[in-house]
Design goal:
With about 425 residues, the chain is α/β, with parallel strands linked by helices. Helix content is about 35%, strand content about 10%.
Length: about 425
């Protein structure tokens, strides 16, 4: 299957909807595979009191999670372009939060570490280039602090979205990073792959560092969630191998295969981060939004009835099903970015598989929805129909384990080019409700 990055795809289209190609976050058709550290403490304490052991939660009847992703990498959703002044950036961010309220959503998932950088005055990594146009350039304000305070003022949850291992989206040279960047000071931590630069997940020192970098924000801001998406080991690139030979030689003894060792590395990152989030900010939930196919049942009888050429277990070395069964995460939001009836990755087959997977675990299931595919000019008839997304919610409600939905992405929530989001609101969100 050809993959085009979800975020890169949208950015390259300069905000136009991508109708026919998905990405690591959505497979191509057809599928083969309070400002400041102390903000919000009292409110957070109240949220913590409502949590059950294992960080589940008790909520009011009728509650459901209604969220949207705000992507910052490549300026997909926010800021609209690099180099805006602080006032313009802040105004755009608040407008997106207002949009969430207008659409009767109750949560936003803001990308605050898109590429080993920061949307807050971080102690360990430089300011993101997507703010000022220059990595390390001070934007003159605190975006994450503002987002937390303003989201809470509107009754919205704010989940901080981090990418653990991605360093650079458009080059492979550590020397091109900001002079203070940890990857520039430690080039041995990096691996070039597919024209991008990554931290090496096989190095224990890398795993420790990326956790500290993320926890810097978690410790300082009253975030409601810590959120990762689908980027662990990178997606396969034809003709290339991820070069972790030296790390495997140093740390891979005792594993039956390199694939088992890689999955162990990812498992360890998830398990350790889960425990540390519980220590640093007990009220915050830890959630992951993976590519929706764990494994297809032609590879594993426990897998989904799909024929996807890519699976998180085999290709990203991410055993997403295990994380649910072990209770290492509080919620999972699989990116089920296909229409009902898709021939190889049917929404109506994947949602029941995930519902069965989370059943009895205490892990909440939120379905990631491909609002970005809803395009009147799509080559896929289903996505031209403004009712397709509404049908997704109707179908999902047949499964009690589905506790909400998460829409990619904020730009489409606001613009709604073919009316699909308005149809969802009219059909399913008659009133505002709290998240669960």
């Amino acid at each position: 299957m050809e993959y085009v990055g979800r975020r890169g795809l949208l950015a390259a289209a300069a905000g136009a909807l991508a109708a026919t190609a998905g990405g690591p976050a959505g497979a191509a058709e057809p599928a083969q595979a309070g400002e400041g550290a102390g903000a919000g403490r009292a409110a957070e304490a109240g949220r913590a009191e409502r949590r059950r052991p294992g960080r589940g939660r008790t909520t009011a009847a009728g509650a459901e999670f209604r969220g949207m992703w705000i992507a910052t990498v490549e300026n997909i959703d926010w800021p609209s372009e690099s180099g805006l002044d602080a006032g313009e950036q802040r105004a755009e961010l608040l407008a997106l939060l207002d949009t969430a309220v207008q659409r009767r959503l109750n949560a936003v998932v803001l990308q605050v570490r898109p590429a080993a950088d920061a949307m807050w005055p971080a102690a360990r990594e430089p300011w993101s280039q997507w703010l000022t146009g220059e990595q390390g350039g001070d934007p003159g304000w605190d975006p994450l602090g503002t987002a937390v305070a303003e989201a809470h003022a509107r009754g919205l949850e704010l989940h901080a979205w981090f990418n653990p291992y991605r360093i650079a989206n458009d080059h492979t040279d550590p020397a091109a990073l900001a002079p203070s960047h940890p990857a520039r000071r430690n080039p041995g931590w990096t691996v070039a792959h597919g024209g991008k630069l990554y931290y090496n997940p096989g190095l224990p020192e890398v795993r420790a560092f990326v956790q500290e970098a993320m926890l810097d924000a978690v410790s300082r801001y009253a975030v409601d969630g810590v959120h990762w998406d689908d980027y662990f080991y990178p997606y396969p690139v034809a003709g290339e191998e991820f070069d972790d030979d030296e790390a495997f030689e140093r740390h891979g003894a005792g594993f039956a295969s390199r694939a088992d060792w890689r999955r162990h590395n990812t498992d360890t990152l998830v398990r350790e981060m889960s425990a540390r989030v519980r220590q640093v900010r007990p009220a915050a939930r830890f959630g992951i939004s993976p590519f929706a196919v764990w494994r297809s049942k032609d590879r594993d009888p426990l897998g989904s009835d799909t024929q996807a050429g890519v699976a998180t277990y085999d290709d990203l070395y991410a055993d997403t099903r295990k994380w649910v069964k072990e209770g290492w995460i509080d919620y999972i939001a699989p990116q089920v970015y296909w229409h009902i009836g898709h021939p190889t990755a049917d929404y109506a087959k994947l949602v029941p598989w995930w519902a069965q997977t989370v059943a009895g675990t205490g892990v909440s299931l939120y379905v990631g929805e491909a609002l970005y595919r809803c395009d009147r000019n799509s080559s896929t008839p289903a996505w031209r129909d403004p009712a397709e997304l509404s049908r997704h919610l109707s179908f999902a409600r047949q499964h009690a384990e589905v506790r909400g939905h998460l829409y990619f992405s904020a730009k489409q929530v606001a613009a709604d080019p073919n009316g699909a989001m308005a149809r969802v609101v009219a059909d399913h969100y008659p009133t505002a409700v709290p998240p669960r």
